[in-house]
Write a structure and sequence with these properties.
seven-stranded mixed β-sheet, 474 residues, alpha/beta, Aldehyde Dehydrogenase, Chain A, domain 1, 19 strands
């Protein structure tokens, strides 16, 4: 299969090529085209013209809603093909890759249902005035997508942007850009207006940097690391471009003595070992009250050791991390933590096999102020920390620069509410990590970023409020 960039409804070659690797084997999956400056300029021009013409904004809202649902249907029709491609380039399990395409379709269905329900309001100023607000699209949205969930996270921002009438340029991740090619085919088949969407593959340091620095965009949506987010914000400041940032996390779950251990283990399985721990909202720290701590450590270690390891196409429990560079960074942080006094109850090192596999790792007795307890690992590494009191647990959980998600495990409903209210996080899970869904707002505070994705709340990232005040005085 050959791959091209999706430029304003047309397929174009790149200025260069990039080999896309299978993380499970180290072999080349395909050659992806890299868009250069000329291609970007064409995409910017097309998006600007589309926004000014109102290709989507001037469309009758019901028609725009119908378009969104057609996109969802087209995504589902090619999801099986796309899932296999995504598995080969990202390393994730085939079932998880398929679920990613299903979730992408669900985003378009969800926001399709909202496309004709964005309403302004009347503001009463007395009998001599008529005052109302109008919600207008921001214009051109530049969206930089990460490599851990490229298809679903592209849909997460693309769907509300299109539902509210914007033009969009998506910069796909260079490590696994192929799945987004399949998403672009769905947009084409659904007959999205030409110019309204471009999906370009390129490196962050080249294409991404030029895109976010352009004066012809009206908004930046970024999901990724803190350093990259900071660089984008510096570029955004030059043009005062509004930005939506979903950055890193070092999220903590707090398990009290009365927590159900089986329930906790199920959340550990998904919270830190899903997608090899490459999840911004992963359960990277597990704080356990002293009376449950040793049993929890043993159970988490047994869980880690029980996971089958292998290729995503074989539906292994544990799959590779995305690249040799990523694996090296994870291994280095774990080694440093062990030298610093943490004990590897399970794993602790890369696996001796082809591909980029880190052993599912459980570190016990991690110091709350150690580097691995404060910095994002972005891999299958669970840091376990004991605590005695509720106040101590809250202080440890809030003791990082991040504030993306957090969790509480307890049968005490009063304590669950009390602790949730004190946790510094944009979302708190109680007795189930990753509870919620497309309808629940998601985003962080501190160095985890700002703004909210998902839910009805996300739509307001993509519109501006205009007030019209009319005097009726004679």
């Amino acid at each position: 299969m050959s791959f091209k960039n999706f430029l304003a409804g047309r397929w174009v070659d790149g200025d260069d090529i990039l080999e896309v690797e299978d993380p499970a084997t180290g072999e080349t999956v395909a050659e992806a085209p890299l868009a250069g400056e000329v291609t970007l300029e064409r995409a910017l021009e097309a998006a600007r013209k589309s926004a000014e013409r109102g290709d989507l904004a001037a469309m009758v809202p019901q028609r725009r809603a119908d378009l969104m649902r057609r996109i969802a249907q087209e995504i589902r029709s090619i999801a099986a093909e796309g899932a296999e491609l995504l598995t080969r380039e990202s390393g994730k399990r085939l079932s998880d890759a398929r679920a990613e395409f299903d979730e992408a379709a669900a985003y378009f269905d969800y926001y399709g249902g909202m496309a004709d329900k964005m309403e302004g309001k009347h503001i009463p100023l007395g009998p001599n005035y008529v005052d109302y607000t109008v919600l207008e699209p921001v214009g051109v949205s530049a969206q930089v997508v990460p490599w851990n969930f490229p298809v679903s996270l592209a849909a997460r921002s693309l769907a509300p942007a299109l539902a509210t009438g914007n033009a969009v340029i998506v910069k796909s991740p260079e490590l696994d850009p192929l799945g987004l090619t399949v998403l672009a085919r769905a947009l084409e088949a659904a007959e999205v207006p030409e110019g309204a969407v471009s999906i370009l593959n390129g490196t962050g340091i080249d294409l991404g940097a030029k895109l976010v620095a352009s004066s012809r965009i009206d908004q930046i949506v970024f999901t990724g690391s803190v350093p990259t987010g900071q660089a984008i914000l510096r570029a955004a400041a030059e043009n005062v471009t509004p930005s939506l940032m979903e950055l890193g996390g070092k999220s903590a779950a707090i398990a009290f003595d009365d927590a159900d251990l089986d329930t906790l283990l199920e959340s550990v399985r998904w919270g830190i070992f899903f997608n090899a721990g490459q999840v911004c909202s992963a359960m990277s720290r597990l704080l356990v009250q002293r009376g449950l701590y040793n049993r929890a450590v043993e159970a988490c270690a047994a869980l880690a050791n029980s996971l089958s390891v292998g290729h995503g196409l074989d539906e292994a429990d544990h799959t590779p991390v995305i690249s040799a560079r990523q694996l090296g960074g994870i291994a280095q942080m774990v080694s440093a933590a062990i030298r610093d006094g943490a004990i590897a109850a399970a794993g602790g090192a890369p696996l001796a096999r082809a591909g980029h596999f880190m052993a599912p790792t459980v570190l016990r007795d991690v110091r709350p102020d150690s580097r691995i307890a404060l910095e994002e690992v972005f891999g299958p590494v669970l840091c376990m920390i004991p605590f005695d009191t509720e106040e101590e647990a809250i202080a440890i959980a809030n003791g990082t620069e991040f504030g993306l998600v957090a969790g509480v495990f307890t049968h005490d409903l009063s304590r669950a509410h009390r602790v949730a209210s004190k946790l510094r996080a944009g979302q708190v899970f109680v007795n189930e990590w990753f509870a919620g869904g497309i309808a629940t707002p998601f985003g962080g505070i501190g160095k985890s970023g700002f703004g909210r994705e998902k839910g009805v709340e996300a739509l307001f990232n993509y519109v501006r409020t205009k007030n019209v005040a009319i005097s009726l005085k004679r």
